[in-house]
Structure formats: C-alpha cells, structure tokens
Amino acid sequence: MDLRKLHPLFGVEILGVDVARPMTEAEFRPIRAAFEEHGLLLFRDQDLDDETQVAFSEHFGPLEKTISANPAGGTLFARQSNLDIRTGETIPPEDRRMIYQKANYLWHSDSSYKAVPSLCSLLSGRICPPEGGNTEFADMAAAYDALPAATKRQLEGLVAEHSMIHSRAQVDPTVLTEAEKAELPAVRQTMVRVNPVTGRKALFIGAHCSHVVGWPLEEGRAFVRHLTETAIRPEFCHSHAWRAGDILVWDNRRLLHRATAYDAVRYKRLMQRTTVAGDAPTVPQ
C-alpha cells in the first residue's frame, strides 16, 4: 500500500487498493492506521456501487441511518445531488431540496448535531461536474496546536450546543419542516476532542455549533466564530477536486469540511455518503 501526501499537515492518497473488493480485517488494518494518523484518505478510480460502498464503510464501524430531511432519509446513505432520486431529472435551483443542500457550503462536522457524533464519513463521487463542486477540508488538530496557550486553557472543560436547526437557519430558517425539527433536538458536545489512538487534541466546532453552554448567548457565539475563523486559515485547509470514481474518507473528530458551488443547472452531480457512527457521547446529555 503506497501513500501520497495531499497536504503538508494531513491527508493521503492511498494507491494500489481496490476498496470494492472484499478485504480481510488484516488487509484493512493499515488503512485504519492511515486514517487515524492522517485524518483524510483518498482512493481514486474505484468502481463502487451502493452495496460495495456499504461493505467497505462497515470496516470502520456500524453505519448511521440518514435523517428524514435528506432525500435518502431512513437509508444508510446521505445523498448530495442535483438529480431527483426518483426520476433522475435535474432539480430546479429554487427547489427546497437544493436550498437545504446550501448549508453544506458551511464548514461543519457530519452528525455533530447527534448525541453520539460520528466517527467518519465516506463520500463517493458517482457523477462529478467537470468544474466546481470541490470539497474543502480544515484540520482542527493543527488549528488547536496553533492556538495560544491561554486559549487552550480557556477551552478546557468547555461544552457547546450543536443543532441542525441552528446550521440550517443560517441558510433559510424555513427549510426544515416542524416535523423535521422535532427529530433534531439540540445536543451538547465538548469543544475539544481527543483521538483515543493518537492522543491528539482537535477543536470540535463547525456550523452546527451554536454557542458555549453556560455563557451569555452572543458572547459564546462570538467565541465560536473567532475559533472558526482562526481554524480555517489557508495553511490548515485542503481542497479536493473530484473525479468520478473517487472516494474520500475523513475523520469527523478532526476535520471540518464544506462543499463548494458548481453550476447545478448546467452539470449533473451525484455524491453518495455513508457515515460511520461514533461509539459514545462526548459529554453527558
């Protein structure tokens, strides 16, 4: 298994591995070790369908089911696409489904709005536009390392509230129905996560992160904004330009990510995401 660095601080392309082929746990072990060390894995030229993506994803752990607001709600997939799941036709830009996806342009960690946040996400590029639509990543471990000592001390023991309702409201407060909101109560998360394998600390923030618990609301939100602005400096970020057949695996404990725009009227795009569940809450709920 050969590795090629994607960024000086994080991320590797893994060469010579066919993830669609059944693999033993012994064969998977170096992939998992690379995931823990580098946080972002890229496999190119993979011939994946839904079944083989699920099989590979389950090596990392049990998979989450997607919330009902996603077009693939209730399945093991979160569908990111401008194509109607039933007809295959392009969805108009003003359609609620496209407005909902605009929140993906905000820096976030998948499923941080759940009481047990996810371990990692696997995103498969099935149909990719020839330009635009990159996925960008920011290394929250490197960002934490770069913080002043006083800020690190300030973060010790802090807990933040995370909510899908909060993140979607930044795009359109009406995009979620009342029934969908009822499925998504706010949760609490530690503001610093520790990788249990490497011991490395990372900021745990993003668009779902609303405010600091126990602080005045606006003061807590200003602190979260400050941390985010600090953490997404260019030296901590990597932008991935998709090719059909790519699959990315990223550590939601360590990385923030966001989608970027593409011409959704001119081009078709279909991305299928599987999300691996975490094993415990970060703090008592």
Blueprint of the fold:
Layout: E1 2-5, E2 12-15, H1 25-38, E3 40-43, H2 50-57, E4 78-81, H3 96-101, E5 120-127, E6 135-139, H4 140-146, H5 149-155, E7 159-162, H6 164-169, H7 178-182, E8 187-190, E9 192-194, E10 201-203, E11 209-212, H8 217-231, E12 237-240, E13 247-251, E14 255-259, E15 270-276
Rg value: 18 Å
Termini separation (Å)? Answer: 41 Å
Q: Quick check: average pLDDT?
A: 96
Tally the helices: 8
Structural class: alpha+beta
Unreliable stretches (pLDDT < 50, length at least 5) are none
- Large-scale geometry: globular
What's the helical proportion of residues? 10-25%
Tally the beta strands: 15
Biggest sheet descriptor: 7 strands, mixed
Which strand order does the major sheet show?
Answer: 1-2-3-13-5-15-4
H and E order: EEHEHEHEEHHEHHEEEEHEEEE
Fraction of residues in β-strands = 15-25%
Task: Report on the architecture of this protein.
By secondary structure, the chain is of the alpha+beta class. The strands form 4 sheets. The protein has a 7-stranded mixed sheet with strand order 1-2-3-13-5-15-4, covered by helices on one side. The model has no long low-confidence stretch (mean pLDDT 96). 24% of the residues lie in helices and 24% in strands.
How would you concisely characterize the structure shown here?
The protein has 285 residues and is of the alpha+beta class. It has helices spanning 25-38, 50-57, 96-101, 140-146, 149-155, 164-169, 178-182, 217-231; strands at 2-5, 12-15, 40-43, 78-81, 120-127, 135-139, 159-162, 187-190, 192-194, 201-203, 209-212, 237-240, 247-251, 255-259, 270-276. Helix content is 24%, strand content 24%.
